[in-house]
Design a protein that fits this description.
2 domains, 7 helices, 24% helix, alpha+beta, 244 residues, single chain, Muramoyl-pentapeptide Carboxypeptidase, domain 2, 11 strands, five-stranded antiparallel β-sheet, binds zinc ion
Length: 244
């Protein structure tokens, strides 16, 4: 009776540890792999024989399949991804002739949202829009001094969406920060932002994914074609773009 080798089994490894679910003969690199060593282990077994395994040389991942490069921002589905890991260089800055020097389209969308909020009885204003590298540097330095490096708020220069001109921190009267989140206006924005192309970028309980604490005041413009997927959910941009 013929007893040949069975089909090979694949295990993909990140820094020597098996990547959950990566068991096919090819593996699609993600942003998670950036800067890590990836290898594949192939195991073959035959009836009555001990399985034989061979592990490939590991390779340090510098680019993901989405085109992400370490220390560089990247664009997925037409959306700029900027985070602590993916920073914009000064030359990437998307300056527009909008409010506070922000992107024009994002500013126009904000004005629309502001009008709709007013109709619903809420006044909302921008307390922070576009932020220059120099400002971000000063904020980062101050935050690190006060809070330490590993807290979930300080973004290094180029690592903030404010540097892109596509994010706004909102307030209602004197209600800023968490007080804004608790205000009727803040709740209205949380519910309705998606209609105007905005998303709450750092929802509650998602710090592990976004790298930032809950920020009920920080809204990021991504356009309505994408933001409609965020309606009534605590989805994060990372989850939406398949980066986690
Ligand atoms: Zn912000």
């Amino acid at each position: 009776m013929f007893s040949g080798w069975g089909s090979p089994a694949f295990t993909w490894l990140r820094d020597g540890k098996a990547i959950k679910g990566a068991v096919a003969n090819c593996y699609w690199l993600t942003a998670k792999d950036l800067g890590h060593k990836v290898a594949v282990r192939v195991t073959v077994s035959a009836h009555g024989e001990k399985p034989k395994a061979k592990t490939s040389k590991s390779v340090t991942v510098k680019t993901s399949n989405t085109g992400a490069k370490l220390t560089e921002p990247f664009i997925v589905k037409g959306i700029w991804v900027v985070s602590k890991q993916h920073r914009v260089k000064a030359s990437y800055i998307k300056m527009g002739k909008g409010l506070t020097g922000s992107d024009k389209e994002a500013s126009d969308a904000f004005k629309k949202m502001q009008k709709a909020a007013k109709k619903a009885g809420h006044s909302i204003y921008i307390s922070q829009g576009y932020r220059s590298f120099a400002t971000q540097k000063a904020i980062y330095k101050r935050n690190v001094r006060i809070l330490g490096k590993n807290q979930g708020m300080a973004a290094p220069p180029g690592g903030s969406e404010h540097n892109l001109g596509l994010a706004f921190d909102l307030r209602s009267g004197s209600a800023r920060s968490y007080a804004f989140g608790r205000s009727a206006a803040g709740k209205w924005v949380a519910r309705n932002a998606w209609k105007y192309g905005f998303i709450m970028r750092y929802p509650k309980g998602k710090t592990k994914i976004t790298g930032f604490n809950y920020e009920p005041w920080h809204f990021r413009y991504i356009g309505t074609a994408h933001s409609k997927a965020f309606k009534g959910s605590k989805l994060t941009l990372e989850e939406y773009l398949g980066l986690v």
